[in-house]
């Protein structure tokens, strides 16, 4: 019987190693959870955009400019002419006709600093419905007087 206990003791030698497979599984699950949730944590980030002295784009032809004032009223400037007050339907018809006649013409949107962003956004949506595929946003160069921009 002593022989049996000695043989059993040799066969059942204790392991001094740690089984790390379950720990690796838990680590991978946590990694996946953090990777999925990390982008959701940065949903509302305040950003201070830098100002730059960018040069204006040189254009061969006068652009079509749609202006939105602080009250949300629309003004249209075609081929360097004076600003004329327009409603949404007239603006869509005139700008759509200009773009169809000349697809290379630049269409720019100028929004008043004191106006709501909603007005500019609505003009962008209206221009898209009029068939304009590319629209630029106008701004004042750094250090220029805001009074000169409102001619």
Automatic annotation (TrEMBL):
Give the transmembrane ranges.
20-41
Q: Where does the UniProt entry say this protein principally localizes?
A: membrane
- InterPro entries xref list: ExbD (IPR003400), Tol-Pal_TolR (IPR014168)
Q: Has keyword Transmembrane?
A: yes
Claim: Cell membrane is one of the keywords in the record: yes
Known Pfam families for this protein?
Answer: ExbD
Tell me which NCBIfam families the record gives.
tolR (TIGR02801)
Role summary: Part of the Tol-Pal system, which plays a role in outer membrane invagination during cell division and is important for maintaining outer membrane integrity.
* Family of this protein: Belongs to the ExbD/TolR family.
Q: How does it assemble?
A: The Tol-Pal system is composed of five core proteins: the inner membrane proteins TolA, TolQ and TolR, the periplasmic protein TolB and the outer membrane protein Pal. They form a network linking the inner and outer membranes and the peptidoglycan layer.
Please report the name of this protein according to its UniProt entry: Tol-Pal system protein TolR
Which gene is this protein's source?
tolR
